[in-house]
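Researcher: Structure for this, please.
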Amino acid sequence: MQLDCQNLEYEARWLISLISDTGMHLSEACGRLTSDINFDTATPFVDIKVHPWRELKTASSQGQIPLIGFSLLVTERIASSPSGFAFPRYCNDQKCNSNSASSALNEWLKPRVPNGCVIPSFQHSLRDRLRAVECPVDIIDAIGRWTTEGIGHKYGAGYDLGE
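Model: Predicted structure, token format:
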């Protein structure tokens, strides 16, 4: 699926490439500015933060997500958007319309994936892929910005991107 999306010169499909390797919610990806993408570090990343047109689901949603694989390839294309918005078809300085992106992408996915697979399935599959390589749970949770249970997990500064 990633390869199909990466080879298409269509920004909506690039959303799939971006979320499949980052664990971002579709609305988080749609609402990014090109300036949220940072290539000037040892580990390129996308900065997830509040914008006037797009609030975050939870406080733990804020953070820096490393860009690897297909997400890195597609952000190199996205970064050149002249509008300054990563996905101007779905976002402007007034609002982020991720529902339109979700409808279009789910329609495109339907004949290509097993029944029941929808856009949020990419978050689930990222977690499965990280588990399959025996990535420690706290790192999986940090990458996906999922809440880790227990008071001890709230101590310290977390993981950095090795800059």
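Researcher: Any notable elements?
Model: The chain has a mean pLDDT of 82. The longest strand covers residues 45-48.
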